[in-house]
Amino acid sequence: MKKAILGIAFVAILCFVGSSSRAQNAANGEKTFKAKCAACHGPDAAGKPAMKSPSIKGKTVDEIQKVISTSPKHAALKSLTADQVKEVAAYLATLK
Ligand code: HEC
After folding, report:
1. CA angle (79 as vertex; 7, 64 as ends), nearest 5
2. pLDDT band of 4, cuts 50, 70, 90
3. Which secondary-structure segment (H or E) carries 62?
4. How far apart are CA 41 and CA 8, in angstroms?
5. Helix axes 22-36, 82-93, angle to 10 degrees
6. Dist. CA 28–CA 54, nearest whole Å
7. How many domains, the chain?
8. Ligand 1 mean position, distance from CA 10 (Å)
9. Residue 95 has what DSSP assignment?
10. Helices 61-70 and 82-93, interaxial angle, to 10°?
11. How far is CA 62 from the centre of its chain?
12. Which residue in 10, 26, 43, 55 is a FRET match for 96, CA 20 to 30 A apart?
């Protein structure tokens, strides 16, 4: 519970401050990943054979933008902002 409160405070501060460091990006990206990607790509981004989804560990911003704009599997992700995609990539880079 403490963690959840800290997490909310963290996001609130980021919203007000605007800019964020690489580590903060990764922390935000983890949240976006868990909410938007983990169901198909697995909790650790290693992929899920049952969903025919590959590992996306270490995928870059460009690679993610590309699947969002071209892959029908990712149509639901068009609402992600460029910043959110950057954050997810920062998080995926920590999983290599
Ligand atoms: C509905 C299930 C689903 C969701 C949700 C999903 N993916 Fe995928 N993803 C797939 C499948 C299936 C593939 C492989 C086929 C394809 O690209 O359409 C894939 C492929 C990819 C690839 C290409 C990997 C490669 O090696 O070519 C990337 C990058 C990727 N996903 C990133 C993401 C990110 C980042 C998110 C969350 C923001 C996400 N996906 C959410 C199902 C999903």
Report:
1. 85
2. confident
3. helix 61-70
4. 25
5. 100
6. 22
7. 1
8. 28
9. T
10. 130
11. 13
12. 10
pTM above 0.85, yes or no: no
* Residue-number span of the structural domain to which 73 is assigned: 2-94
The CATH number linked to 6 is 1.10.760.10
Type of residue at 70: T
Q: Could you report the per-residue pLDDT of 21-35, keeping only the tens digit for each? A: 788 999 999 999 999
Quick check: CB of 85 below 6 Å from ligand 1? Answer: no
Whether ligand 1 lies within 6 angstroms of the CB of 67 is answered as yes
Tokens of 44: 């650790």
Whole-number CA gyration radius for the chain: 14
Tell which residue, 48, 42, 43, 41, has the closest CA to residue 63. 41
Q: Is 54 in the pocket of ligand 1 (CB under 6 A)?
A: yes
